[in-house]
């Protein structure tokens, strides 16, 4: 379906990475699919550092970002890490689900130093605690901010305080 | 101690620690001439020497990811111009590509090429400004004016085509808004020629200048592995000596069709980062020339209307903007608005390496290093 | 960690280093290179444009301000709905008009809060009836927040500044080019006052009174003939695509244009009348801001446009800090002769 | 004797006026030259003709501003510092001969007087930096003191070289001693002294490339960060007075003072000083600044040894000839 397939180098290394991960992680690799030029691997939250360490050893040295996704209907958060291999030009996304009522996931700043700020951001926006992170403080938000703005139940006030002017007049 | 830090604000904690040690904590920013907006750097100084420094962000956080969840693609492109206002067009394109790829829309070739032309013009404008502004960081008062002047030529072209200098909002899902206006082609080659002479001038003006070299050579050295670890991207990463460039690696906008080099540096210091950008301007000129040559006739838009819904799915699209890897991780559930949109901006990751770079430097080097990363605060805070 | 095995080409840095080695014969010699650059600039002409009296010509597409054409608005609310900033306020009511099956919407209020507007142009783009237009006009600032909310009368007034959309490049899609041409011609006919229903009525009435007073129609016939010729030959393209009042007005306008003081005439500055009406600045020829003479610089073009604006308003142009008339005298002479 | 005593206040007032009014062309030149080398026009409106009234407008603007003394500042010192900066800078004007006999106070030791007064500026900077009680002023003050001490030496060495060559400390006699045509000291002693003098002048008046104490992209305005209004421009006026005074001294020492063909001496003097000042402005707005440690290294490791060698060389030269 995707009109642009990833380059040949990326393709082979994605399959390689997938098989490597399968061997090394075993059952812990819950799911691995290739989608739009990236490998999406799903692991349990406690295997997150291990998976990323493996990926780093496999050449995925560029830590792109980490973010959270809120799925209130399924009562879970997704923690998504994205890494890139400058040698093979391949991208891997690592996902882990954490329960919404106790979102805890181990930190990866020992693997990728750059995860520091991204995890802090995810923590303050979603309330996902990165266990072992030494500086889990507000990064972008002010200290007095309460609540976790990126959760789906946090209302964007700009859209509430003022009536929508696009409402068609009646009469 | 750890619990202390968790409960107290960050700055309070640092100040308390400092009361004990007696080092001086210098707050550079958020209102300071050299932080390009409202970045704040808390530096612990021992005389002129920086023991450690920590950027403090968030003074410009506008919750773009939250805003994007309430907006249709058309509204989002207008929003993303404001991420990094120095290179507005470069921010809206990757988002459009993400939506197009999810929907399986084939963008007409003419639109692709036009996007490339505008993209590279924006890069020229952005780098031209950097080349000037960096002089100001080092205390030379004339270069920024040259930078602003030079940038204006590329922005003139953008204005002629899109109607605005910076917040272009020109890319649409499935193409661009309109074709170029009459007389647009004729105006490009002289301006490219101008930029080439400018590049020569920057070489004379700053790169040949001994004081400039003294201030930048060997300052803020960023090794490749650290840069990759922190996700530093774009010219900053390439200056460290590794040719990572999304234009060569990803298939977007048909960049594969153009012949251009990806210049890299070899030391990764401030000087290399400066030369890197000067050199990339040259390559941008080449790309625009090639794009002009093979601009095919035809439609420029597939005519996706305002009710366009992004099909369900998830995708990550990255593009090589002037500030580094600019990517959008789009998770859609089939609505007009994205379910979740992660905006990966170059500046955020680039600035996250500052604590590493600023360690054990001198106070003036803070400014030199900050400037050489070429960040825009809107791009950091989003 | 594996070392990156990509081919790295650091020739750029090498080049620069080589260059430095070549240049730096003496220590600190490079400083004079810098000083040479600034000296050269010092002796060349500055690029500054002295804004209030010198103006650069803005491109046609410039997104300066949104102008409203009230007659075209059907109160469909699309602009207000799609506005990302929620800054367009529209109020209306339904009216049953004779001869129409369905009740029609009538506009009561159209306001844009420019304090919120982010100039994205979505409203102009989604408007299905061409009621909103971008104009390059940008001098509408206000000291108060309330002053930035502009109501429809002001928005309507800005129609005077709307420029015709530029033609596209030659190799653009033919269909798009044609559409653009239509839009261009439509706009060109009425930039300085789009012809509205009310104008038509006024013009008609004026013509009637003129006829009743026995003013000689033959001279009027001559000048009315010259009008369409001077304007770019566009009505052919326009006629099929614009079933809007414009075509009807075009038929009505030439007959009505002769009595020099009718409101419709002062509106229609764009059509270069052969004899300037004596309403304003004496002997200055009519300046058509969309059809300026060739071979003049951007600053002069901007000044001419400004002068045209004063001419349009019938005011004397300011003499301070720059006497527009005196500065533009050679060009005006040239236009006259 | 009584006559000259009577004239003393008049002379004082004239010197003061010269020092004050000479700032007007300097500021105007600064604004215009910097603007044009930045490809701008600079001020264009005040005074109708090319912004000729801008210096006056600036002055009026600044004196209108609120005079703020920070709460934690050491108020008396804070208030006094601008005057301590300004008065010595103006005082230098008293001994500068503009033409033969046209001088505020003829002195045998004029050069010494100039050098001594220009060092007082350091005290003002320290006062300002200390009294402001701000971290930026502290860093700036420390930098300024280090810099002024480091560059006072090359300045003195450069001037002393000339004094040795001329055999006098009187500025008038130094001008008279310069060989025909108008400006020639024996090579290479004169050239080295000139280099030392010019470089130290930049450092003395805190202009780029040696403007670290007031580096606006690093420490806002250094010692002057907390000042506003009248007191702030006192510092600027002292800086400008310094520039003019040092340019005048440079002209007297190296460019032959008022001597020149055809034109009257005063005109020659003004022309030469202007050339000096224009060069200062041109370099000020072109060059990036060095780092503090590089600046110190430059002074102590290069300029001062060079100056000492030069002085030694002149001594030998003088003995031999």
Q: Would you kindly provide a brief summary of this structure?
A:
The complex is a heterotetramer of chains A (171), B (382), C (337) and D (321). With 171 residues, chain A is an alpha/beta fold.
Tell me what the structure shows.
The complex is a heterotetramer of chains A (171), B (382), C (337) and D (321). Chain A is an alpha/beta fold and 171 residues long. Chain A is 23% helix and 27% strand. Chain A has a single domain (8-159), classed as 2-Layer Sandwich (Beta Polymerase, domain 2), CATH 3.30.460.80. Chain A has a five-stranded mixed β-sheet. Chain A has a two-stranded parallel ribbon with strand order 6-7. In chain A, a hairpin with a 4-residue loop joins strand 3 and strand 4 (76-85). The termini of chain A are far apart. Chain C has 337 residues and is mainly alpha-helical. Chain C folds into three domains: 65-163, 2-Layer Sandwich (Alpha-Beta Plaits), CATH 3.30.70.3270; 166-270, no CATH class; 280-337, no CATH class. Helix content of chain C is 42%, strand content 8%. Chain C has 14 helices and five strands. Chain C has helices at 11-23, 30-43, 78-82, 122-126, 152-157, 174-189, 197-213, 217-230, 235-241, 245-256, 263-267, 298-313, 324-327, 329-336, and strands at 65-68, 88-95, 104-113, 132-135, 149-150. In chain C, the strands form two sheets. In chain C, strands 2-3-5 form a three-stranded antiparallel β-sheet. Chain C has a two-stranded antiparallel ribbon with strand order 1-4. In chain D, helix 3 (54-64) runs antiparallel to helix 10 (229-254) and helix 6 (135-166) runs parallel beside helix 12 (292-320). The radius of gyration of chain D is 20 Å and the shape is globular. At the B-C interface, helix 4, helix 7, helix 8, helix 9 and helix 13 of B face helix 1, helix 2, helix 4 and helix 6 of C.
């Amino acid at each position: 379906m995707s009109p642009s397939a990833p380059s040949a180098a990326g393709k082979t290394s994605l399959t390689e990475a997938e098989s490597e991960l399968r061997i090394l992680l075993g059952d812990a690799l819950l799911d691995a699919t290739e989608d739009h030029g990236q490998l999406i691997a799903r692991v349990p939250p406690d295997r997150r550092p291990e998976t990323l360490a493996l990926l780093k050893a496999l050449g995925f040295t560029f830590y792109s970002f980490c973010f959270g996704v809120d799925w209130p209907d399924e009562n879970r958060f997704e923690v998504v890490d994205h890494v890139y291999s400058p040698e093979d030009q391949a991208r891997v996304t690592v996902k882990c689900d954490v329960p919404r009522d106790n979102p805890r996931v181990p930190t990866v700043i020992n693997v990728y130093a750059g995860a520091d700020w991204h995890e802090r951001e995810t923590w303050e926006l979603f309330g996902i605690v990165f266990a072992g992170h030494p500086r889990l403080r507000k990064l972008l938000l002010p200290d007095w901010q309460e609540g976790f703005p990126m959760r789906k139940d946090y209302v964007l006030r700009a859209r509430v305080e003022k009536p929508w002017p696009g409402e068609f007049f009646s009469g | 101690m750890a619990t202390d830090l968790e409960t107290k604000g960050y700055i309070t904690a640092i100040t308390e620690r400092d009361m004990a040690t007696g080092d001086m904590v210098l707050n550079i920013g958020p209102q300071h001439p050299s932080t390009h907006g409202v970045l704040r750097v808390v530096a612990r100084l021992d005389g002129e020497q920086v023991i450690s420094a920590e950027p403090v962000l968030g003074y410009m956080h506008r919750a773009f990811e939250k805003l994007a969840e309430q907006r249709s693609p058309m509204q989002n492109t207008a929003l993303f111009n404001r991420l990094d206002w120095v290179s507005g067009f470069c921010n809206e394109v990757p988002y459009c590509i993400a939506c197009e790829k999810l929907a399986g829309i084939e963008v007409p070739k003419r639109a692709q090429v036009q996007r490339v032309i505008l993209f590279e013009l924006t890069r020229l404008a952005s780098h031209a400004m950097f080349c000037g502004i960096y002089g100001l960081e080092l205390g030379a008062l004339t270069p920024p004016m040259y930078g602003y002047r030079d940038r204006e030529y590329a922005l003139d072209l953008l204005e002629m085509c899109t109607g605005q200098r910076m917040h272009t909002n020109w890319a649409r899902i499935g193409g661009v808004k309109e074709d170029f206006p009459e007389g647009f082609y004729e105006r490009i080659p002289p301006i490219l020629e101008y930029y080439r002479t400018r590049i020569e001038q920057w070489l004379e003006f700053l790169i040949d200048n001994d004081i400039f070299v003294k201030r930048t050579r060997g300052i803020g050295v960023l090794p490749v592995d650290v840069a990759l670890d922190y996700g530093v991207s774009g010219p900053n990463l390439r200056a460290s000596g590794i040719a990572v460039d999304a234009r060569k690696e990803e298939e977007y906008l048909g960049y594969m069709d153009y012949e251009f080099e990806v210049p890299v540096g070899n030391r990764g210091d401030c000087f290399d980062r400066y030369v890197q950008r000067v050199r990339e301007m040259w390559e941008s000129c080449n790309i625009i020339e090639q794009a002009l040559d093979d601009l095919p006739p035809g439609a420029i838009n597939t005519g996706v209307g305002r009710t366009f819904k992004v099909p369900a799915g998830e995708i990550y699209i990255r593009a090589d903007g002037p500030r580094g890897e600019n990517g959008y991780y789009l998770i859609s559930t089939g609505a007009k608005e994205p379910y979740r949109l992660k905006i990966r901006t170059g500046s955020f990751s680039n600035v996250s390496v500052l604590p590493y770079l600023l360690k054990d430097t001198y106070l003036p080097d803070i400014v030199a290093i900050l400037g050489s990363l070429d960040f825009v605060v809107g791009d950091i805070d989003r | 960690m594996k070392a990156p095995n990509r081919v790295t080409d650091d020739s750029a840095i090498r080049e620069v280093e080589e260059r430095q080695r070549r240049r730096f014969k003496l220590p600190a010699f490079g400083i004079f290179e810098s000083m040479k650059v600034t000296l050269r600039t010092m002796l060349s002409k500055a690029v500054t444009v002295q804004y209030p009296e010198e103006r650069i010509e803005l491109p046609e597409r410039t997104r300066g301000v949104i102008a409203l054409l009230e007659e075209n608005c059907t109160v469909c609310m699309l602009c207000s709905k799609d506005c990302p900033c929620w800054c367009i306020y529209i109020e209306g009511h339904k009216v049953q008009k004779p001869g129409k099956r369905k009740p029609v919407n009538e506009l009561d209020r159209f306001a844009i809060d420019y304090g919120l507007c982010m100039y994205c142009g979505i409203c102009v783009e989604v408007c299905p009836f061409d009621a909103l237009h971008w104009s390059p006009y940008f001098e509408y600032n206000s000291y108060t927040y309330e002053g930035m909310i502009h109501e429809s009368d002001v928005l309507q007034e800005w129609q005077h500044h709307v420029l015709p959309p530029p033609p596209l490049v030659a190799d653009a899609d033919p269909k798009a080019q044609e559409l653009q041409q239509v839009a261009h011609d439509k706009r060109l006919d009425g930039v300085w006052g789009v012809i509205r229903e009310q104008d038509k009525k006024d013009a008609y009435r004026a013509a009637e009174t003129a006829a009743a007073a026995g003013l000689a129609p033959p001279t009027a016939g001559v000048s009315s003939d010259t009008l369409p010729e001077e304007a770019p030959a566009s009505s052919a393209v326009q006629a099929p695509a614009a079933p809007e009042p414009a075509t009807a007005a075009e038929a009505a306008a030439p007959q009505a244009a002769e009595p020099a003081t009718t409101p419709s005439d002062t509106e229609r500055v764009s059509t270069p009348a052969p004899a300037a009406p004596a309403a304003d600045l004496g002997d200055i020829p009519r300046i058509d801001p969309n059809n300026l003479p060739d071979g003049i610089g951007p600053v002069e073009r901007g000044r001419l446009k400004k002068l045209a604006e004063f001419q349009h308003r019938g005011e004397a142009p300011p003499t301070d800090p720059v006497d527009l008339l005196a500065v533009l005298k050679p060009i005006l002479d040239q236009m006259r002769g | 004797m009584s006559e000259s005593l009577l004239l003393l206040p008049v002379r004082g007032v004239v010197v003061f006026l010269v020092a004050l009014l000479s700032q007007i062309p300097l500021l105007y030149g600064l604004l215009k030259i910097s603007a044009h080398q930045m490809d701008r026009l600079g001020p264009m409106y005040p005074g109708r003709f090319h912004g000729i009234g801008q210096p006056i407008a600036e002055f009026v603007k600044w004196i209108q501003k609120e005079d703020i003394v920070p709460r934690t500042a050491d108020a008396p010192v804070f208030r006094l510092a601008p005057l301590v900066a300004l008065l010595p800078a103006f005082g230098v004007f008293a001994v500068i001969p503009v033409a033969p006999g046209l001088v505020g106070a003829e002195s045998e030791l004029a050069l010494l007087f100039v050098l001594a007064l220009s060092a007082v500026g350091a005290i003002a900077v320290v006062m300002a930096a200390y009294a402001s009680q701000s971290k930026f002023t502290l860093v700036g003050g420390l930098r300024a003191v280090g810099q002024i001490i480091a560059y006072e030496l090359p300045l003195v060495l450069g001037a002393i070289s000339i004094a040795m060559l001329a055999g006098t400390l009187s500025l008038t006699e130094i001008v008279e001693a310069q060989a025909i045509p108008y400006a020639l000291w024996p090579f290479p002693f004169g050239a080295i002294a000139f280099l030392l003098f010019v470089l130290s002048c930049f450092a003395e008046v805190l202009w780029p490339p040696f403007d670290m104490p007031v580096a606006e992209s690093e420490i806002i305005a250094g010692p002057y960060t907390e000042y506003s209004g009248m007191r702030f421009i006192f510092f600027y006026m002292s800086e400008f007075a310094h520039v003019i005074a040092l340019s005048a001294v440079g002209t007297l020492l190296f460019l032959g003072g008022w001597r020149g063909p055809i034109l009257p001496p005063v005109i020659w003097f003004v022309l030469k000083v202007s050339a000096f000042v224009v060069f200062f402005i041109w370099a000020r707005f072109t060059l990036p600044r060095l780092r503090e440690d590089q600046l110190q290294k430059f002074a102590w490791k290069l300029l001062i040894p060079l100056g000492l060698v030069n002085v030694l060389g002149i001594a030998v030269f003088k003995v031999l000839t």
